[in-house]
Amino acid sequence: MEGWRQLSHNLLVAPQTSMKNMEKELLCPVCQEMYKQPLVLPCTHNVCQACAREVLGQQGYIGHGGDPSSEPTSPASTPSTRSPRLSRRTLPKPDRLDRLLKSGFGTYPGRKRGALHPQTIIFPCPACQGDVELGERGLSGLFRNLTLERVVERYRQSVSVGGAILCQVCKPPPLEATKGCTECRATFCNECFKLFHPWGTQKAQHEPTLPTLSFRPKGLMCPDHKEEVTHYCKTCQRLVCQLCRVRRTHSGHKITPVLSAYQALKDKLTKSLAYILGNQDTVQTQICELEETIRHTEVSGQQAKEEVSQLVRGLGAVLEEKRASLLQAIEECQQERLSRLSAQIHEHQSLLDGSGLVGYAQEVLKETDQPCFVQAAKQLHNRIARATEALQTFRPAASSSFRHCQLDVGREMKLLTELNFLRVPEAPVIDTQRTFAYDQIFLCWRLPPHSPPAWHYTVEFRRTDVPAQPGPARWQRREEVRGTSALLENPDTGSVYVLRVRGCNKAGYGEYSEDVHLHTPPAPVLHFFLDGRWGASRERLAISKDQRAVRSIPGLPLLLAAERLLTGCHLSVDVVLGDVAVTQGRSYWACAVDPASYLVKVGVGLESKLQESFQGAPDVISPRYDPDSGHDSGAEDATVEALPPFAFLTIGMGKILLGSGASSNAGLTGRDGPAASCTVPLPPRLGICLDYERGRVSFLDAVSFRGLLECPLDCSGPVCPAFCFIGGGAVQLQEPVGTKPERKVTIGGFAKLD
């Protein structure tokens, strides 16, 4: 109790001690001076009434500045004594002014005559930089913030802003005012107050107040009806009077007395302020942390500048080196061409009359000694012939063009133009079509098209079906995953995992992907292959090379049977088994059935019963074939309590047939009536869960793990997976996520390796 009293005392004392530190809270965002008759905008910010009128005038609204009579008539507010703050008001931004003018405002003030819709006045709030709708009445529909006015007045008195307030009716020199009158809207000294409020008159009933330069009404008045506000509308978050309360505008709104709103808001504000004052150490710690962050930001920013400068200088050095090498290549090519052209010029100069080769030839022709002439002229003739050929086929020895030295820098310029800071990778998108859980969890993802590249990824996962521990959720991580897929080994069976992934590059880690939830199988996954050595008709069943898929191909026997359908002929059942038999524990496997299959049965059965049924395969062509031969479930030779040796789920034409009970799908040829059965859509994958000890088989949707059917099963011997076909159909076993196991064959209770 004593602590609460101390806290209440602090709440009362704190405003007095911090009065001098809150000046920035009392400045108008337009004129940057203390508020004078502040108005509350719909965005909850405040602005001086005079400033608001001037802003609206600049926007082209004339006559919407509120009631002129609300302007105080005290000497402090007259034009002759008003401060020159209007000349320093900040003008609205040009883009906002253009946007308002394009909307049609400012061309004609007020409502147009004959207009269907009244003009809505838009006020650009200088605090939040947003456009606020003032409605049709403009500033006349806003409340004055009397509380803020009182705070400004107390602040002025505490810091003695503007000096003493003088009496407004005294003869010069005026005395210091000691009282004020709200009704007279003036300040008085003691003598003048008595003079202007004589005893026995109506003015004597005026209540004196403290001297002030801004006279306020006694209470808030409704701007629409000039009535005192008495209620608060929670829906509109606005004070209303009695007339507003009964008007259609507030019909159906939550309206409470202003006393209740006052008490509730005061309690909230008091509690919030008490919390802040009670956690001053935390505030100071956070301030220190922010200051330390500022220092780190300055250091990191300087380091980033140096790194960028160093990298750009490196690029400049590479470009300078490349420039030098290219210029050297051009220089060498130029010198080589000049030397060849100079040699060609020298040869041609020797052909001029009286110089070089021509002069020498003329002198040789003067030789009269025939043997000597022949000896000297033979070599000279070859040179003259070459010179003659050069004159006839003249071409410069080198080209003057350097087009082969042109550079294509378009790609490089584009790269330099697009040079920018490396961004972190965007949140990856998990591929839900390729992500699944089987014997292991396979997670696949991709980056958005315009995402920066990722060097590696971090995969996080956790179980959601474990008891929650105090504190944040603990994730398991796989760091530095290369590629866009990951394999999570040895997940717990029958659990729900939530997974997420994020990328990383030199800029840091990006955002996490959306969480994806995966159900793991309810039991350990059984790996097996299809075995076509028992009961599979090679004419009608085709097993793939990897022995994980089988297709039923209807041939001539099916056509012949179709001819005899009206004569009582029945189709045979082609069965293929798995090469593994289960003798204990719980096992799970999944497969996909082609939706176009005519009739497929997926399930399990006793190995001995399945082999017996294969040994006496019926003839489909014979009209004497008896479908009720006792080989469907063995139920005729057993007691009522005996468990069925088979448990199958019937699929056909993209539907699953669900019987009224487990026994409806217990045989190969069940004959339930249509009234006792229903169908459900075929899921992409079917799951089969065998509980050998309990003697139960569950069929599930392998995608959502929703249960479809649960059947009893005779587990007195080895139980094999089995697939039955009537007509065309196909089944594909689900591939194991991890390494394929060794092929084990267990038939007749003995296991061996292929």
UniProtKB/TrEMBL annotation:
Give the main localization category: other
Residues covered by the Fibronectin type-III domain? 424-523
- The answer to whether UniProt assigns keyword DNA-binding to this entry is no
> Which organism does this record belong to?
Neotoma lepida (Desert woodrat)
Renumbered to this chain, region (Disordered) spans 62-93
| One GO cellular component term | main axon
Pinpoint the COS domain residues.
365-422
Query: Among its keywords, does the record have Transferase?
Result: no
Q: Which residues form the B box-type domain?
A: 217-258
The record's note on quaternary structure and interaction partners says:
Interacts with TUBB3 and TUBA4A.
What's the name of the protein? Tripartite motif-containing protein 46
Q: Which family does it belong to?
A: Belongs to the TRIM/RBCC family.
